[in-house]
Protein 1
Amino acid sequence: MKNNRRDFFKKVGVGTAGLGLASTIPFTSYASGSKEIQSSDEQFLQIGDDIAIANTDSGKVRGYILNGVYTYLGIPYGADTSGKNRFMPPQKPEKWDGAKPTIWWGNTAPQIMDNRYASPDYSFADHWNYDDVSEDCLKLNVWTPALDSKKRPVLVWLHGGGFTNGNGIEQDGYHGENISKNGDIVFVSINHRLGPIGFTDLSGVGGSKYANSGNVSQLDIIASLKWVRDNISNFGGDPGNVTIMGQSGGGAKVTATMAMPAAKGLVHKGVPLSGSMLVANDQDYSRKLGEYVMKEAGLTPDNVDKLQELSWREYIDIANKALEKMRKDNPTPGFRGGFGPVADGVNIPKGEFFSDPNGLSTDIPMMICTTFHEWNPTRTSPELEKIDWAGVVEKIQPRFGADSEKIVKAYRQDFPEASAADIWAMVLSNRQGAINTANAKSKQNAPVYLAWFGWEPNLYSGRMKAFHCIDICFWFDNTDRMYTHTGGGNRPRSLSKAMSTALISFMKNGDPNGSKLPSWPKYSAENGETMILNDQSQVKNKPDGKGLASLPA
């Protein structure tokens, strides 16, 4: 299966990332912190005309109660983004009468779905969940233990897929039921515009009407956070304690959102996993790409509005062809570019995020995590496990050139017992982006905590290693639900309980300590304090220090 997030995040961050089976399969309900399976002799789903009714500022919603958790799927937080609303900031949804049934996922944002399930290995392991696709995609999901006034911490999940693919329930590991129940929190996941629909900067050709067009996807995220601010107390949540968390592309969305002036007061903690960004696309670049889009569509500034009349698939195909031609005409070694957040100086600042020690987000704590083998080349290719050291040097030369041998030697010093295949994966999956983010954020007032996930599942003959996406289900108490990543059972469940408890503590207090993990120190650039997450977790200072130092800046 073609996985665009992999291509994307090799450039912008570190680093890969559910329909919840327990929502639909009536005979088991696992909570990863418990060995017990709920008895099928007792009814554990309640759904009906007068059950799970909650208020929102647009009207009442009707969900259901499953395993004691109130569940709402596909709540509108914005209006349909098609037609005249395409490329425009999100609008409020129209109000409705009665109780809207919110018992199924909202539409996935427009994206290319061709061959999404082409690879049986990736389809099995990642268990992608996709349903209808449309521009009426500004929907969110809520899981909460109760509709009361308790003011629980709120987690808002921003899905992966670069800035091009994905949805709020793309993998089973994204499901919010278990952590909501076990941690007594409110879990929210969102869909928002993606790719060319969400990031085409037409401000240079369309004037003030299209001033925000390059960042409407990020503005969707802001709209969802405003919905949380205005409505989450109706679901037992605290609008004054909101953590945004995302993985891969979602991790970059976390750091980009924290850098947005409009996020002030809406975000109180940030957790980027396996992806982050510190600089948005330069607007000269994004506007030039907008010009290429117009040329490919055969339009002029006088009729730019015709782009709103195309079907979403027609538009995405045009935009992708424009991007391909721009790359060919303007080759920039080391820069892939594409449709992503734009440093317009209004919605997203120019320059490096978090550069002002006392600036925006200075009081927002951050917890960062990546995995050991994000981009493991041997995951589904057993023949690659036999690679030797000379082969590793040869394989990484297209990326690192003359430094390749030096880099391999440095990583071997850090990890003398690792195989050649392991070192190959770790070099490709280096933590350089995560370290850069941690260093930048650590100059501000609030603390930063850094983790590195090294747990490996006994699946695919041991080749999966600590791959991109594997840690998500551990944070959310979903290791039994996401058994295709973990194998299920006591071993991953034990680490998951420690990690989810640390996350909940961080959400409540801005400090992950208090779980079964060792004492977790704050990160500093000087010492590089890192929590190694594994069957036996431990803290190490700069565990890959020689390897990181050998990489080009």
Note: Residues 1-37 have pLDDT under 50 and may be disordered.
Protein 2
Amino acid sequence: MAITPAASLRAAIVTGLAFFISAFVAVHYSRLSGGVAMVWLANAILAARLHALPVRCWPATILACAVAGLMLTSLFGLGWRAAPFLTAANLFEGVAAAAILRRITRSHWPDDTAEWMAGYSLGIGLAVPLLGAAVSAITLSLVAGLPMRVNFVDWLIGHSLGLLIFLPCGSLVCMAWQTREPLLPQGAGTRAMLLAGTMAVLTLAVFMQTARPLLLFPLLLVVFGGIWANAFVALMLPMILATLGGLLTLYGHGPIADMQPSPTDLNVLAGRLQFFQVYLGVTVLCVLPIVAEQERRRRRMRDLAHSEARYRLLSDHVSDVIIHMARSGTIRYASPAITQLTGHAPEQLSGVDFRQIVVEEHRAAVAAAWNAAVASPGEPVAVEYLSLPLGGPSRWFETHFRAVTNETGDVDGLVCVTRDIAQRKRIEEDLSRAALTDPLTGIPNRRAFFETAERVGASGVPSALAVIDIDYFKLVNDRHGHAVGDRVLRAFAETAVAAVRSTDFVARIGGEEFAVLLPDTELVHAEKVCQRLAKAVNALAVDTPQGQVKITISAGIAALGAHPDAALAAADSALYHAKAEGRARLRVAA
């Protein structure tokens, strides 16, 4: 929110007025030894206001408080000679506390509770007032001849506890005033008033009697407020305790007023006030870590709620299935898209082991991917498998597993994204088939033949192969054209597939050259199969516009061993001899 010069000036005047009033009350009621005030809230007011303002607006507020401090010290305090030094010490404390609070809040609030508490208690609660106490003690000793040690202790305790006790709540109020944001969540006003009223009644009850053990009960309520209420309410409770308990202690009521640390009335009252401030300081230091931790948890819960809302919106509207599982594999949540892909309703799968919807032969692969994801949390691991949809054939799916860890770093479960890849698998199969199929005849090509021959040869079962060549095929192309030649090749392929056994493998390995793989077949039986094939080809007649075209074949047969290339070379050699002897005949390699 932008701050206009006029608004900045008004805010500076208001802060200066608040600084003056609080300082006047402190000087009037707690300046018991004739030196510095023993209770000091003004610097907390200045620091809280500066913390809420942009740095460019600090000068006006500091100037307003400087004027207020000079006037107060000159007119109602230790006089004009001490005023500049004491005012400078107070301004230093306010500015330094605001700067430290801004830095530690930006760096550590609320995620790093220990770091924030260390910066707040040691920096703001100790280092800052320690320097101010040194300046004031030296000033009062030189200007007014007052004892240095007493004023040093009174300043240090009063200013330190003032910052520790009042700065947290004051900064929240100033931030809310600056940003126009409510201090309480919607609907929390009644509960806040009830807790504040309880604190007021409990404080009055404790400080209207003299039993010191009862001082524990306000502390317990403050701790309870830190756990149950929001930050403002939790930090407001010590303010109520400070106001009511402080007034009653000042007027001689309560467990602390019954203490007698010194025989003189003046020192008795001073001791009571200092003990009460220490009691308040301990109370605030007890509740601040709780407030920080609770605020961290509330922010995390809000982030988780927003994340879950986005996750639900995403999972409900994407075609991929999102599944959350326990580490054991039990499904905790499945997105609605699973119904469209598998027929299973999400509630049907709750509590079901994920592996139960995977076909048995693929469960090992899924388990391996699962274990790899658990071993490397945060790293996605993909696996493809056949799943078992409800009331239908198995379908191909791809799942990406990612293990999720808890706060201690242990794997708490897995989130996976599953998609239907049946169409992709069909495309892959089509592409694989196309890569192994002769486009003209539709039978396997040379690559497919050699891959199959290697598998058969490696099995060690006696097998054979035949290389077949269409006789005088070049004359067919020259006389009738390539279109007729293509028809002849297709007709031969169909005839060959029909003539051989179902276990045999026919492939086109060249222009008009074909090969037949005959698994588990001795050469004598292979020769009979090829003779049957030759007889079927001799009976083949391909119709053309110029009349029927008839063809014959020559073949070379060889035994298939572990090296298909050698067997093919032997069959080629036998084919060469068959053609040299006049074609239309078969020869077996020696």
Note: Residues 207 and 254 are 4 Å apart (CA to CA).
